[in-house]
Structure formats: structure tokens, C-alpha cells
Amino acid sequence: MRTLATPAVGATSAAARVGPGGASPARVDPARVEPARVDGALLELDKIAVTYRSRGRPPVQAVIGATLSLAPGEIVGLVGESGCGKSTLGRAALGLVALSGGTVRYEGRDVPALGWRARPDWLRSLQLVFQDPYASLNPRRRVGRQIADAIALGTGCRRPDGDSGAEVVAALERVGLTSHVATRFPHEFSGGQCQRIAIARVLASEPRCIVADEPISSLDVSAQAQVANLLAGVAAESGLGLLFVSHDLSVVRKIADRTVVMYLGRVVEEGPTAQLWSAPAHPYTRSLIAAVPEPGVTGLLPAEIAGDVPDPARPPPGCRFHPRCPLAVERCRVDEPPETARPGGAAPSGEPARSGRVRCWRSEEVVELGKVGGASRASSPDGLPDGLAGATQ
Ligand SMILES: Nc1ncnc2c1ncn2[C@@H]1O[C@H](COP(=O)(O)OP(=O)(O)OP(=O)(O)O)[C@@H](O)[C@H]1O
Ligand code: SF4
Ligand SMILES: [Mg+2]
């Protein structure tokens, strides 16, 4: 379930060298900071709110009351259109943006906001893969040195055997890069290569939790599969928790245990990926799924999502999705739906009760009408199955 079909490129020897799934050889160091708590949730975001304020402009509520948790070894996909707040929420998880509400806990401890003080040692095992890889790499240090620094971070203090030594080379090969990369500077590489270097550096520090913000969007298709498989493999083998932010629902479907859907700063649906995909309970989730291109289907373009994302500084009243929702009724234009449990019942695959949350006044109908309409992919121009589109008033 968690493997993408596209064959890996370049890193075949790395897989052999560092073991299946890419886990690097175990290193033991007494100075290493151990987790305060390894049972239960690894990362807990509770009612997170982030508001950006700039002079002369209305405040932008980038994230409003978002709750999300991540267990060891779990992959959670975070999806939504551009500007919905995915990166802001990801950065909030690491204390990189000021919160206007809510709390973030990692391994049972409150994550402090980034300040002038050094980051606490216990937070080092929580790492971020930035959406822009150039922003995370030091342009003045050779790649090998930056990987060696990360290895030293992971081991507590021990430096690896040089900036082009076996451990550094293994870390690079793990993401499909060769040893020649070690002696060069970040500006000598393309965006996709830099992203691989950034991922190699994060993995070299042996994190227990990664927030990966669009880690594969700058990679070509085969490299996307390789890196997604690598991250999923590390999560499965070493118990790494991975918050995987992506526009690409087809990749999220393959690797994520649970999927969180955001729209205009709100989490609008969350649940086990298979159940969310087979029986989405929010019209926006359904539209996102319908917009995924389907290989092998000829003569049928994926359905666009109608309308544009509203200005987050001036969100619509009521349900934030109502101006674009084919199911909107009067109540939706006035009252914002609360977060409720996703509708119950068996999923088409025969799985028992579904779990998760949804924000929609008509979620029961969305699921029911979706069954009438068949598969959750679009068969009508508004991104909803025919049966569901017919319910529009
Ligand atoms: N520093 C900032 N100051 C003001 N507004 C900001 C700032 N950073 C982000 N925003 C706004 O907050 C909203 C959420 O931005 P964010 O980058 O989190 O979205 P995103 O879902 O990651 O988008 P994308 O998919 O394009 O990366 C957007 O409307 C964006 O314009
Ligand atoms: S609450 Fe209403 S407008 Fe919002 S998604 Fe549900 S049906 Fe559509
Ligand atoms: Mg982003």
C-alpha cells in the first residue's frame, strides 16, 4: 500500500549499503538526547491559530483552530490548494511561526516559539524539510560538510569520517546522489537536486519526526517516487513520524496512513486515507480527488474545482467553501459548520466503522449520494458524481 510503482533511480547501491528502506547503520552515543515519551502521540497540534499582520493590510488568518496528531511510524498527509495554510501549519509544528492560539507538543513537551535562545536539544529530533530547498541549505558550505554536520547532530557529538567519508556518501546515495556531490556548493545544483540534498541532510540527523513541506514537488516523476518511497520506508522501519505536506493527492493516497484536508485555513476533513478516498464526506475533498489525473483514462480530463480560493483576509461568512460548493444551502452561507465525527457505516472496501472528522452541514448526504454516484472520482463537471451534482439546489 505504501509503495509507489515507479522504479527508484540512482540509489540502488545505497539501498544495498544502508539496508532495505534506506535506514543507516545504527550509531550509539551516550550524549544523544532520548525522547521524553515514546508512547502515544509524537506530535500534537491542538487548536492552532496563526494570524499574519502587516501594516495597512487586514490580518490574514492563515490557520484557524487546526488540530492534528502524529504517532510514531505514522504518515499523515496534509493536502489542500495553494494558500490554504499547509506550510504555515507545518512551520507552526516546529515553533517557526508565532501562534495566535493553540498549543504544540512534541514527545509530551510544549514546543517553544523560535526566539533568540538556542533550540532545546530535545527538539533536534523534530526536523523540517522546507518547501524551498535553497532556504534550508547554507550557500557557503560544501554539501558534504553540511551532511557531516547533520550526522554529528544525530549522533550527539561524534563527527563522521570526513566531509566525503563513507557515512556522508551513504547519506547522499540514499537519495540517489553520488559522492561527487559532497565537494560542491548548493548553488551548483538544480532545485530538484537541492531538495534531495536537503532531504539527505535531514535524514542524516536521524530524526524521530519530520515535517516535510512539499518535499517532492520540485523533483521529476521517477525521483518523486524514489524520495516518497524512501521517506515511507524510513517511517516504517525506524518509527519515524512524518507529516507529509503535498499538492499531489495520488502520492498521499499511496503513502499516508491518514489524510488531513485544509481549506482556507481550516481543517475541513481528516480520516484514514483509504476511507477518505473511497468515501469522502466533504464536497471539497471530493473535488480534490476528482481533480487528480487518472492514468489510463483517455478522453476525460480531470474535473477542475469551480471558482477561485477566496482572499484569506476576507473569508466568506458561514462555511468558507460555500461560494464554490455545489451543495451549498442557505444555512451554509450563514453558519460555519462545526467539526463533527465523519459519518459512520462501512466503507466500500468492507472496512468497519470509519473514523475522523469533517466540517460540513451535509456530510451524511455527501457520503450517501457519493454511493449512488459510484466511485468518488468525478463524473460531472463540478467534480461531483452525477447523483451528487443533482442534489444541488
Ligand atoms: N509572512 C506572511 N505574511 C502575510 N501573509 C502570509 C505570510 N505567509 C503566508 N501568508 C499567507 O497565509 C496564507 C497561507 O499561506 P501558506 O504558505 O501557509 O499556504 P500553503 O497552503 O502552504 O500554500 P502553497 O501550497 O502555495 O505552498 C496565504 O494566504 C499566504 O498568502
Ligand atoms: S457546509 Fe454547505 S457549503 Fe460547506 S461544504 Fe458542506 S454543503 Fe458545502
Ligand atoms: Mg506551502
Structure overview:
With 393 residues, this protein is an alpha/beta fold. The chain has two domains: 12-23 and 39-256, Rossmann fold; 280-389, no CATH class. It contains 13 helices and twelve strands. It has helices spanning 12-18, 86-93, 133-136, 143-155, 166-174, 191-204, 221-238, 249-255, 273-278, 283-290, 330-334, 363-373, 386-389, and strands at residues 43-52, 60-70, 75-79, 101-106, 109-110, 126-129, 209-213, 241-245, 258-263, 266-272, 340-341, 357-358. Strands 6-7-8-3-9-10-12-11 form an eight-stranded mixed beta sheet, sandwiched between helices. Strands 2-1-4-5 form a four-stranded antiparallel beta sheet, with helices on one face. Helix 7 links the parallel strand 7 (209-213) and strand 8 (241-245). The protein is globular and about 65 Å long. The model is unreliable at 6-38 and 374-393 (pLDDT under 50). The structure holds adenosine-5'-triphosphate, iron/sulfur cluster (SF4) and magnesium ion (MG). The site of iron/sulfur cluster (SF4) has 13 residues, from loops. Iron/sulfur cluster (SF4) is lined by residues 282-283, 319, 321-322, 325, 327-328, 332, 337, 360-362.
What oligomeric state is this?
Answer: single chain
Mean pLDDT: 81
Largest sheet: 8 strands, mixed
Strand element count: 12
What number of domains?
2
Under CATH, the topology of the largest domain can be stated as Rossmann fold
The helix/strand class is: alpha/beta
The gyration radius over C-alpha positions equals 22 Å
Strand content: 15-25%
CATH architecture of the largest domain: 3-Layer(aba) Sandwich
How do the strands line up in the largest sheet?
A: 6-7-8-3-9-10-12-11
Spans of at least 5 consecutive residues whose pLDDT stays below 50 are 6-38, 374-393
By CATH reckoning, the class of the largest domain would read: Alpha Beta
Shape: globular
Terminal Cα span: 39 Å
Helical content stands at 25-40%
